[in-house]
């Protein structure tokens, strides 16, 4: 049973949206799943080999950690994104058995989750006091402890399903019914996931200099090859305010010529560029490719240039010009 | 006493880094200062007129709220940034009187602050358990309450100074000694702060279409006029994943021709562009301006174009061409 | 008879394609038409007031003079293009009365015309010797002189029509049946021709510096405003090899906001930019305009920027920040 | 005597500036030199093998032929530029023996040469009548014929030196004392001339579509790789008015990575792009190369991309994700 030996870390604790994301990965269902207390800890498990991969949030997270993820994979030992997972964000209000909605006085959850349920809270439990929790799941599980100082928690449906002893006082209580969070599965560098035609490539590019146009030059590496960007974020390098790196998602796979060529361009302009992976898009939306940026166009162009250079012999000083035409 | 009638809101509670930022504003020292429980609440006070201005974090915050700020000022009734303030981030560990470092078992603080003091904690109180707090100040003040469930808190030096009854067990305990957070003072739209030559302009630009080059076109509005960008962040619009707006800080003041011209260009490309203000840079670094992007160059160019168009009369069908030259 | 007082110069002599172009201008039919021996002489007549306008070739001329025109209008006292005219290029072989095709031994014409009839000549009069002529018309008219040293001439149909004493030995003898030459009507600066929606604007832009990207910056002034170029030619400034100016035709009229804005941008980058006119396209092809580069978009953008700046008062040092928001 | 078997064609006749250019090529001094009556004829001799190379004007020619050259090498069987030569343009006035300056009534020369000596002519022989000549040399040699219809000719110093029977009535009579014309030596495709660090590359690029930005895309291929352009000219394709190709000289050699990469980019955008050669600059000015566009930078970038792709195995559907990281 080869699956039994695999280990997946995730931003814990159990019952969070991140675990829900991990449960979408078929292999992970049979594998050992290890919650980590923060993003760095999850990624460190991959780096030190105690996990094969880690699931962490990358965009729009309810539990925080997004900027931590961006920063953590931008430095340190190299890692690779091998998969992305989208999780619809839906909240429930859970309480200790026997507590009714009208009895809820103090509610705990992660700060981000609290912010996303304000409308429901204002309408149904306007008097409720907020008790910060380190995660939605921790808040929910805290209700099961003896000395719990609050009455209810806002959490993911997953934790409620896993703990039927909690009573659900409200479902779908988020302000934004279509909310989605994006998670990434991160491993050590290895073979790239196969091209599917609907892929995404993630890079981290330090801004080479603080001059007008430096960012333009970077983006031009994509635009001039018809590569669309689906995400770009500036992040401080942490060295000093005003010094940035860019975290960029581009449509396409590094194995496609136009993407590989853009990567080479980035490396020239900013040699500290870090490749974070090419992997299938969660939404399976196929990337349209114009004829002049297709693999065939790149291949034809290279063949043409090689044919020009092919006969290039370093004609010596003594060679007559006319003889070169023979 | 005109100052007595002014009111400043800030992301509270009292004693946080945000209040420290507000105390750097001379007018605020004499004014009423009102803590708000979150960024939206602070900004709403400005919008509804119950505060004249609000101080909120915009970059690199210890207490969170940065993305909340980016999102809150990007929509709703228009607001304007009129000042930026930089606050060095320095943490202290405080405890209830009589508690020594060796007795600290449970420590509370905001999650972001906890993440930024890991090295010191691992070295000096490795066994300490983390108790989430809604802010650094709240965690510190909680120590003064009867039923406090933790022994110490990580907070800003300000709150320790304001509450001498707390004993300081560690100073400068942050992992990154040079850390700085940037805050903005936000008001309702009105006269722009005067040009100083060392100004910054902030805009929010919805990406018009998801096509290669759309972002390039936006950035080109700055680059082609020699306007440098000091910050660019993509933020999801919240409508659907993959739909973004960009929050951008550019060097210069909207009253400068090259910046005004760039703003006009942004508005053409993306009519939903929102102007968030022109205001003095906290670091007072003067913006260098090339001759061909100076106000004089713009003025000369406009005069030239006007001189070309000046004599333009809509010559009728019957007018002879040669007569136009008379 | 108002038309009687007007004078048009043209690159002569009479009977050339340039006169054919001039005869397409309704006003010119009644006016005095003065042939000039070269492009400079024709333009000088406009500059010194002895002609109201001059017709000269600008593109693809049979009689030469195109580069002379480009250079002559690029320097000296300013002139303006007020009209363009297209003339289909069709050649005839004419001879002295009584001469048959088989008797033609020596043929005169302008060198460019000779080059454009090689196929016909090689097929029908392969033995013919070439005698250089200063123009097609001069060659044709020379046949009527007593001591003419050649038997036939290649010229425009116009001169054959005007001189029925010449016998036509071949019609439509050009190698390229669809050939067209473009001419411009040039006057002193005055009111611009009215906008028609199908206009062209011509400028001369000295390349500011010999650096990568200088030309890009110039072209970007057009591209970033959606202005298409229909012609671009580099011409040496004559000062030293490798120093260029660019002669550019752009779609649109200087009175259109996107074109006027592009002109202003050119002037900033290269203050020596010279405006040579906005005038109706000979082919009457309407210029498509994208919504975001329409006059309405520019107007809305300017109004928006003005509204931002509108309330700008230079708030004094003593003014409180909060009071600015009142 | 290996030199004896080589043949060079040139735009004739003998004694023109083009022959002066050819005499700067060491090998040509011993070779057979064949004048051709026009540029096409000269190039056809190379194409059909009856000459090894041909010298023709490419820029600023006194004898015309420049646009003919641009057009002739842009189509037909491929040719290669292997050398460029600069010739200072200096004119002399020659006459039949016994004729003094005051007796000169009719002067023959090429039309371009006539235009370049107007100041001297207007001052010294203002009454002189112009007789068109097919070249400066033909005009000069015509003086030696019995039935010559003119008294003097304007020609290159070379023809006067070769024919001492002509008397020189004026030297350095050109209006522009620093005038220079550029010539190219053209051969059939073969090994490229060796890189010298001071090279030039010439290409012909058909404009792919008449849309805003198409030319920008082409130029961006150079600019984004730091390749400077020293010449750009639009030429009509001859198919219909408004359809262009661009003749471009770029600094650098196709064997340099940044130039080769730019060529590949051109080919992708406009597959009809034609390579006309890389050859040493006549002025021997070394091309400066920025670090990030050096061969080393390109090589490092490619190595980096290969290292990313190196382990790429098309992982099958059945492969588990975690196993890829092993």
UniProtKB/TrEMBL annotation, chains A, B, C, D:
<dbReference type="InterPro" id="IPR018528">
    <property type="entry name" value="Preph_deHydtase_CS"/>
</dbReference>
<dbReference type="Pfam" id="PF01842">
    <property type="entry name" value="ACT"/>
</dbReference>
<dbReference type="GO" id="GO:0004664">
    <property type="term" value="F:prephenate dehydratase activity"/>
</dbReference>
<keyword id="KW-0456">Lyase</keyword>
<dbReference type="InterPro" id="IPR008242">
    <property type="entry name" value="Chor_mutase/pphenate_deHydtase"/>
</dbReference>
<comment type="pathway">
    <text>Amino-acid biosynthesis; L-phenylalanine biosynthesis; phenylpyruvate from prephenate: step 1/1.</text>
</comment>
<dbReference type="InterPro" id="IPR045865">
    <property type="entry name" value="ACT-like_dom_sf"/>
</dbReference>
<keyword id="KW-0584">Phenylalanine biosynthesis</keyword>
<feature type="domain" description="ACT">
    <location>
        <begin position="203"/>
        <end position="280"/>
    </location>
</feature>
<keyword id="KW-0028">Amino-acid biosynthesis</keyword>
<keyword id="KW-0057">Aromatic amino acid biosynthesis</keyword>
<feature type="domain" description="Prephenate dehydratase">
    <location>
        <begin position="7"/>
        <end position="188"/>
    </location>
</feature>
<dbReference type="InterPro" id="IPR002912">
    <property type="entry name" value="ACT_dom"/>
</dbReference>
<dbReference type="InterPro" id="IPR001086">
    <property type="entry name" value="Preph_deHydtase"/>
</dbReference>
<dbReference type="Pfam" id="PF00800">
    <property type="entry name" value="PDT"/>
</dbReference>
<protein>
    <recommendedName>
        <fullName>Prephenate dehydratase</fullName>
        <ecNumber>4.2.1.51</ecNumber>
    </recommendedName>
</protein>
């Amino acid at each position: 049973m080869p699956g039994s030996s695999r280990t997946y870390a995730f931003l814990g604790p159990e019952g969070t949206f991140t675990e829900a994301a991990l449960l979408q990965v078929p292999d992970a269902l049979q594998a050992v799943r290890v919650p980590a207390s923060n993003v760095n800890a999850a990624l460190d498990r991959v780096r030190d080999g105690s996990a094969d991969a880690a699931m962490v949030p990358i965009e729009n997270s309810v539990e925080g950690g997004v900027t931590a993820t961006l920063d953590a994979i931008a430095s340190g030992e190299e890692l690779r994104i091998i998969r992305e997972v989208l999780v619809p964000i839906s909240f429930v209000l859970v309480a200790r058995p026997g507590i009714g909605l009208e009895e809820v006085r103090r509610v705990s959850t992660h700060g981000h989750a609290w912010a996303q349920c304000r409308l429901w809270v204002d309408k149904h439990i306007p008097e409720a006091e907020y008790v910060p929790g380190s995660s939605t799941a921790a808040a929910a599980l805290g209700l099961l402890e003896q000395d719990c100082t609050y009455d209810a928690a806002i959490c993911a449906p997953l934790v409620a399903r896993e703990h039927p002893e909690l009573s659900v006082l409200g479902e779908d209580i988020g302000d934004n019914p279509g909310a989605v969070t994006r998670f990434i599965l991160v491993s050590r560098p290895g073979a790239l996931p196969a091209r599917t035609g609907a892929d995404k490539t993630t890079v981290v590019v330090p801004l080479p200099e603080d001059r007008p146009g430096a960012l333009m030059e970077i983006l031009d590496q994509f635009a001039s090859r018809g590569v669309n960007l689906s995400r770009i974020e500036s992040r401080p390098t942490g060295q000093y305010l005003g010094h940035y790196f860019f975290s960029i998602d581009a449509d396409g796979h590094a194995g496609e010529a136009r993407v590989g060529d853009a990567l080479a361009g980035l490396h020239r302009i900013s040699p500290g560029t870090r490749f974070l992976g090419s992997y299938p898009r969660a939404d399976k939306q196929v990337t349209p490719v114009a004829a002049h940026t297709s693999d065939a166009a790149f291949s034809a162009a290279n063949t043409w240039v090689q044919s020009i250079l092919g006969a290039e012999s370093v004609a010596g000083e003594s060679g007559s010009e006319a003889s070169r035409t023979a």
